[in-house]
Amino acid sequence: MFFDRPESGELAVLVHLELSAIDSPDDPREFEELALSAGADPVSFIFGQRATPDPKTFVGRGKLEEIRQEVKEQGAELVIFDHTLSPSQERNIERELKCRVLDRTGLILDIFAQRARTHEGKLQVELAQLRHMTTRLVRGWTHLERQKGGIGLRGPGETQLETDRRLLRARIDSIEKRLEKVRRQREQGRRARSRAEVATVSLVGYTNAGKSTLFNRLTDADVYVRDQLFATLDPTMRRVELPNVGAMILADTVGFVSHLPHKLVEAFRATLEEAAQATLLLHVVDAAAEDRLHLMEEVQTVLEEIGAADIPQLLVYNKIDLLADSEPRIDRDEEGVPRAVWLSAVTGAGCDLLVEAIAERLGEQMVQGLLVVKPQQSRLRAQLYQINAVQSEHYRDNGDCELQLLLPRSDFQRLLAPFTDGGEEPEWLPKEALPDDNEAQEH
Predict the structure, then answer these.
(1) 194 vs 241, residue with greater confidence
(2) Least confident of 135-139, 229-233, 266-270, 318-322
(3) Closest Cα to residue 389, out of 372, 366, 373, 360?
(4) Per-residue b/e over 142-161, b at no fewer than 16 CB within 10 Å?
(5) pLDDT digit string, tens, across residues 89-118
(6) Mind spelling out the 3-state secondary structure of the chain?
(7) How many CA atoms lie within 13 A of 9 on its CB side?
(8) CB atoms closer than 10 angstroms to residue 47
(9) What segment(s) does the record annotate as region Disordered (predicted)?
């Protein structure tokens, strides 16, 4: 890398401060899980309280001395702060402790670098790392001479620091262009699904809530699953058939975390757009988590940041196998619409209820029934076939065509609008009005 820093190690001292300026402090247990997910071996956990961070070293002199003694006694090679440090704070602390220092953003970046598996995921991680690195370049070249005057000491017109910044900027521009191409490809895929009227349902939620386990349960896929934070980085999509609704695309996405660094939200925009463009969001919640309400608020914050806060949501309370006396069920609102499903993705209990609830929620926007199209209305028949709305058809003796339809209500109203404005309106029988024996025969 560009840094001339001490060699990194596995033995780590964790530092967590309660700052009175922050209304909702982070959970230290989550911080420890992040460190373990990164492969660190925490040997000590130091807590403290401050009104505001010290502008020079974040912690006060006394706490810094306590950390120094702990590093020496434990033989630690790494100190991780559960906060975002400025480049100067990180540099000053390293100078005092004589070991490598990492903040929360750097820790999450390290985890993401380990987890990324696809080419796109690796590009997104590298972009976030490079953006993080640009603010810390000055530390990498403190051992080199800057430009000097005098015979034999004049530089080439550009300091090493300026050279590195230029090279980093060129690499960032290159990655951004490649990710823009990925975004365009994803957008083309979304437009194709939109033309085919295939609904997209995205799994969102706090990291380690069980999204990938649920995804595998619903799709019989083999997505990587581990009981650790950020096990999933790369989006995975599968086609699923729903009763009375038809096909849908289920997308597994990266998990959210409190104070998700803005650099990561920007870098993973191509991935998170799958959630922002979804028809329905399945907000997966760890039902066994003590602070699940706080975690749900953090997810809502990220959804607002990526422009997905207004997309309809279905809450999925997962891990009920860890709760006492909790049975699978569907919670409905006063109008009978499914709002939450309680299940266990590990055991499969309640997953059938989730499929039922998804079908109901997507079915709210669907129209199903029998449409009788006259020979002179063949253009309408062709349009219905074009959007894959026809399930079967049958011709009457007089030449009329009976079409069994399943399509979004918006398309149904759009295609029949010209006939309601003055033309001869086709005969329409919704599914509820059809007798049991009036099934259309396939042509």
Answers:
(1) 241
(2) 229-233
(3) 366
(4) eeeeeeeeeeeeeeeeeebb
(5) 988 998 888 888 888 888 888 877 776 666
(6) CCCCCCCCCCEEEEEEEEECCCCCCCCHHHHHHHHHHCCCEEEEEEEEEECCCECCCECCHHHHHHHHHHHHHHCCCEEEECCCCCHHHHHHHHHHHCCEEECHHHHHHHHHHHHCCCHHHHHHHHHHHHHHHHCCHHHHHCCCCCCCCCCCCCCCCCCHHHHHHHHHHHHHHHHHHHHHHHHHHHHHHHHHHHHCCCEEEEEEEECCCCHHHHHHHHHCCCCCCCCCCCCCCCCEEEEEEECCCEEEEEEECCCECCCCCHHHHHHCHHHHHHHHCCCEEEEEEECCCCCHHHHHHHHHHHHHHCCCCCCCEEEEEECHHHCCCCCCEEEECCCCCEEEEECCCCCCCCHHHHHHHHHHHHHCCEEEEEEEECHHHHHHHHHHHHCCCEEEEEECCCCCEEEEEEEEHHHHHHHHHHHHCCCCCCEEEEHHHCCCCCCCCCC
(7) 15
(8) 12
(9) 420-443
Q: Which neighbouring-strand residues pair with 405?
A: 369, 390
Strands 11-19 and 41-50: parallel
Taking only the tens place, the pLDDT of each residue in 26-44 is: 667 778 888 887 888 888 8
Q: Please name the amino acid found at residue 431.
A: K
Choose the weakest-confidence range: 64-73, 85-94, 137-146, 423-432.
137-146
CA distance 16 to 147: 40
pLDDT digits (tens, 9 = 90+) for 40-96: 888 889 888 888 888 998 988 999 999 999 988 888 888 999 888 888 898 899 888
Burial class (CB in 10 A: 0-12, 13-18, 19+), 113: middle
- The packing angle between helices 351-363 and 211-219, to 10°, is 80
Interacting residues of 142 by C-beta distance below 8 A, sequence separation 6+: 4
Range with the poorest average pLDDT among 157-166, 251-260, 402-411: 157-166
> Which one-letter amino acid corresponds to residue 145?
E
- As to burial, measured by CB atoms within 10 angstroms (0-12 exposed, 13-18 middle, 19+ buried), residue 227 is exposed
Q: The tokens of 420 are what?
A: 């309601």
Burial of 198 (0-12, 13-18, 19+ CB in 10 A): middle
Contact 280, 363 (CB under 8 A): no
Q: What is the pTM of this model?
A: 0.64
Residue pointed to by tokens 């950020």: 230
